[in-house]
TrEMBL record:
<feature type="domain" description="Histidine kinase">
    <location>
        <begin position="406"/>
        <end position="517"/>
    </location>
</feature>
<dbReference type="GO" id="GO:0005886">
    <property type="term" value="C:plasma membrane"/>
</dbReference>
<feature type="compositionally biased region" description="Low complexity">
    <location>
        <begin position="519"/>
        <end position="533"/>
    </location>
</feature>
<feature type="transmembrane region" description="Helical">
    <location>
        <begin position="6"/>
        <end position="29"/>
    </location>
</feature>
<dbReference type="Pfam" id="PF14689">
    <property type="entry name" value="SPOB_a"/>
</dbReference>
<dbReference type="Pfam" id="PF02518">
    <property type="entry name" value="HATPase_c"/>
</dbReference>
<dbReference type="GO" id="GO:0000155">
    <property type="term" value="F:phosphorelay sensor kinase activity"/>
</dbReference>
<protein>
    <recommendedName>
        <fullName>histidine kinase</fullName>
        <ecNumber>2.7.13.3</ecNumber>
    </recommendedName>
</protein>
<dbReference type="InterPro" id="IPR004358">
    <property type="entry name" value="Sig_transdc_His_kin-like_C"/>
</dbReference>
<dbReference type="InterPro" id="IPR013767">
    <property type="entry name" value="PAS_fold"/>
</dbReference>
<keyword id="KW-0067">ATP-binding</keyword>
<dbReference type="InterPro" id="IPR029151">
    <property type="entry name" value="Sensor-like_sf"/>
</dbReference>
<keyword id="KW-0472">Membrane</keyword>
<dbReference type="GO" id="GO:0006355">
    <property type="term" value="P:regulation of DNA-templated transcription"/>
</dbReference>
<dbReference type="GO" id="GO:0005524">
    <property type="term" value="F:ATP binding"/>
</dbReference>
<dbReference type="InterPro" id="IPR003594">
    <property type="entry name" value="HATPase_dom"/>
</dbReference>
<keyword id="KW-0418">Kinase</keyword>
Length: 540
């Protein structure tokens, strides 16, 4: 590639030199022609102003040895002109470089000069092609009695032009040499920067890079030294929810203020940084480049984070089931002892109490929370809380109909807040978590209170920041994602999430979700459902 670039640049320099020389020579020839014609005209004017020539023209005959011929030849030799011809009004020559032509008619039309006008031209005559100047010849009274025609051979003009060409070519050659040296230096620099790759190799690498960038399932964002986005692959556009129009703008302009823009801009440093963009949990890494820019990679961890939360819930349920199994064995042993002691009434009472407590908890939840997903979540969380030494209760004000627009979203909100509350009360005496779910028209209000240490006022906004946490992350996922997701879900429903101090101490999280409930069904449908015949008792 080095030789190709060098040859192309040398060819360009040579072409420019030839073109510049041609552009210089073309006006130079015209200038030399103009100078020759003006010189011929000046000699003719000087000759015509000599009164002796006019007097001799009237007093003598046109002969090779006449005074007019002698004076014209003297002027020709003194000025270096090709010829000096004096003619009368008839067009008869009185002087000429060839004496034999004296007395004959001139070969070109002298009409304009005899009419009193001066003429400059390039023309063909008996002496060949020449630059000519013609002026009228006047007597002492100002009457035109003839004309003076002076010519400078065109070959002499061309000779001057040809004489100037070597110097021009020398300058052109010097410029070509300088251009060739500059081309060599540029080619060497390009060779080092491209690592001596051929044009075809560079084109192939570019095609491979484009295919790789737009084919990988990882977002890639490249920024220049000024912090502007210069490249976005397809996956980055999908994860960030932006298009090609973001190229050329800063992360703040393309994404808006937030943690994601801070991570891409380098204002937040570290490895495997967690950030939330829309409903996606992203892992970002940023690496500076040699030119002062940076390349950021983005990985989608939404599904992994959800799996991690499900794993946490599963582990909690497993621990709760293990505890229930242990407690169930104890109860069976107690029941067996009562039966062996023939304390049958006490055994019946003991079984009734055990079954009644579990049924009371489930019925209490299902009566107040009509959505099956939320009810099942709260029953499971109550079991987990009991295993962790905490009490999870449902507020008496809780009433939520089965008309949720996005039950899965509300399950995420409730699950995150209850998990955080259980973490906060862990290891504290009289650990309690209270959940309140109520409907206000189409608005759902969620309140989770705990008896933990609470949240200091200066941290009540920080806890909703992505990646911020006071706890060490578990092995399979990061911290600082749950509460930002809660607030984003609330914002998606047009509401908000905030934290304050609970009445008895601890933290109180409140989430308001406008338009979270659908409109009630038509009364006719309810009436039709209530008018159905009741099923027989045996069928229930």
């Amino acid at each position: 590639m080095f030789s190709q670039i060098l040859l192309m640049q040398v060819a360009i320099a040579a072409g420019v030199a030839v073109l510049a020389t041609g552009l210089f020579l073309a006006p130079l020839g015209e200038q030399l022609d103009d100078q020759a014609m003006r010189r011929a005209l000046a000699i003719a004017q000087t000759t015509a102003q000599q009164p002796q020539i006019a007097e001799d023209l009237r007093a003598t005959e046109p002969t090779p040895g006449g005074p007019v011929q002698r004076e014209a030849e003297r002027i020709r030799r003194a000025t270096g002109a090709e010829y000096v011809v004096v003619l009368d009004r008839r067009g008869v020559r009185w002087s000429h470089t060839d004496p034999e032509r004296i007395g004959g008619l001139v070969s070109t039309d002298p009409g304009e000069a005899l009419a009193g006008r001066e003429v400059m031209e390039i023309d063909e005559g008996t002496l060949g092609r020449s630059a000519r100047g013609k002026v009228p010849l006047r007597d002492a009274g100002g009457e035109v009695i003839g004309a003076v025609s002076v010519g400078i051979a065109y070959d002499s003009v061309r000779a001057r032009l040809i004489h100037a060409i070597p110097g021009l070519l020398a300058y052109a050659g010097g410029a070509l040499a300088v251009g060739a040296l500059a081309a060599w230096l540029i080619s060497r620099r390009v060779q080092r920067q491209t690592r001596d790759l051929a044009f075809s190799d560079i084109a192939a690498l570019l095609a491979e890079r484009e295919a790789m960038l737009h084919g990988i399932r990882e977002g890639v964002v490249a920024l220049d030294r000024h912090g502007r986005v210069r490249l976005l692959n397809d996956e980055a556009q999908r994860l960030l929810g932006i298009g090609e129009e973001a190229v050329g703008s800063s992360p703040d302009e393309a994404l808006g203020a937030g943690r994601t823009a801070d991570v891409l801009a380098g204002r937040v440093t570290g490895t495997d940084l967690l950030t939330v963009r829309g409903q996606r949990v992203l892992v970002a890494n940023r690496m500076p480049t040699d030119d002062g820019g940076a390349v950021a990679t983005l990985r989608d961890r939404t599904e992994l984070d959800q799996l991690g939360r499900e794993l946490d819930s599963t582990r909690g349920l497993i621990d709760a089931l293990r505890a229930q199994d242990h407690e169930h064995a104890n109860r069976m042993h107690t029941l067996l002892g009562l039966l062996e002691l023939e304390m049958y009434e006490d055994a019946v009472e003991f079984v009734g109490e055990v079954v009644g407590d579990h049924r009371a908890t489930s019925e209490q939840v299902t009566e107040r929370i009509r959505d099956p997903l939320l009810a099942a979540l709260l029953v499971g969380k109550a079991t987990v809380a009991a295993e962790r030494g905490a009490a999870l209760r449902l507020s008496d004000r809780s009433r939520l109909p089965d008309r949720l627009v996005d039950p899965r979203g509300l399950v995420t909100v409730v699950g995150n807040l209850v998990d955080n509350a259980l973490d906060a009360v862990a290891g504290t005496p009289d650990a309690r978590v209270e959940v309140e779910l109520r409907a206000e028209g189409r608005t759902a209000v969620l309140v989770v209170r705990d008896t933990g240490p609470g949240v200091p006022p200066e941290q009540r906004e920080l806890i909703f920041t992505e990646g911020w946490s006071t706890k060490e992350p578990p092995g399979h996922r990061g911290r600082g994602i749950g509460l930002p997701l809660v607030r984003r879900l609330a914002h998606r429903h047009g509401g908000d999430a905030r934290v304050g101090e609970a009445p008895g101490g601890g933290a109180e999280f409140t989430v308001v979700l406008p338009e979270a409930l659908a409109e009630p069904g038509p009364p006719a449908a309810l009436a039709g459902a209530s008018s159905r015949p009741a099923e027989p008792e045996e069928a229930r």
